[in-house]
Amino acid sequence: MPDELEPSVVTDFQGRMTYGGYLQLDRLLSAQVPLSQPPHHDEMLFIIQHQTTELWFKLLLHELRAAVRHVQADDLEPSFKILARVKHIQAQLVNQWSVLATLTPSEYGEFRHVLGPASGFQSPQYRLVEFILGNKDARMLQVHRQSPADHAQLEAALRAPSLYDEFLRHLARRGMPIPREVLERDLSGPPPRHPGLIAVFKQIYEDPTHSWDAYEMCEKLVDVDEQFAIWRFRHVKVVQRIIGSKRGTGGTAGYDYLKQLVDLTFFPDLWSVRTELRG
Question: What is the pLDDT of residues 73-113, one digit of tens each?
């Protein structure tokens, strides 16, 4: 190894952008504040796990909103790259669970009490992701009453078309027979299940060359849906491993609540159509 740095290496940052400045590392790395006294070693893991999850959620929202805009503009192809990225972000979220799974029940028990009623159930970003993908439930707004800004953002997302709704509207504009009752439905509810949609998706899948971009969009949506199911499964198993069947800190039934969500699908008719296809 040379004794000196290469001459081209920048060492004078007077009035210039630095790595730490660009990333605001002073703010980012000061945000981990364990509350246990004395600080329990494993609380840092718990905090960083959830903070990084929220950062990935922020990026998911950034990408999904862009995908919605492209579909609204009847330009599906740019959304393929975006949804491929979303799938990789989801893979990072799935892999993170293996780190939290190293937390044993006795270790978590040493600091769980400092959370009080705080829980991931209260994450406004996670709920926004679910709403944008179509899993809407107006009851969830109650959890966010204490934050008017979060409540307003979630209420707007509840009333707005989801990514799936926008895709169905796009298909209708292309002349595909999307049922009127689907297009005019109450957008604040869960995704539609309709035999007319299965018929449209069946046509797309059985003749992909006729509507290749719609065919590709269907598969990209299924990718996202599948990754979320895997994320939920890893979530429920890690919770079971660490706290068993205890209630969650936010008041849910914990493991019993989470395991009900594993089979939830954002785009039900994109799964149902597979049973109807030839072969």
Answer: 999 999 999 999 999 999 999 999 999 999 999 999 999 99
Rounded CA separation 125/142 (Å)? 15
How many secondary structure helices (H) and strands (E) does the chain include? 13, 0
- Provide φ and ψ at 195, rounded to 5°: -60, -30
Amino acid at site 206: E
Rg, the chain, Cα only = 22
Per cent of the chain over pLDDT 90 is 83
**Using CA atoms, how far apart are residues 66 and 82, in angstroms rounded to an integer?**
8
**CA 8 to each of CA 11, 180, 261: distance values in angstroms, whole numbers, following the listed order:** 9, 64, 54
Structure tokens at 267: 């785009």
The Cα 30–Cα 139 span in angstroms is 35
- List the structure tokens of 101: 């799974």
Helix axes 124-133, 212-243, angle to 10 degrees: 150
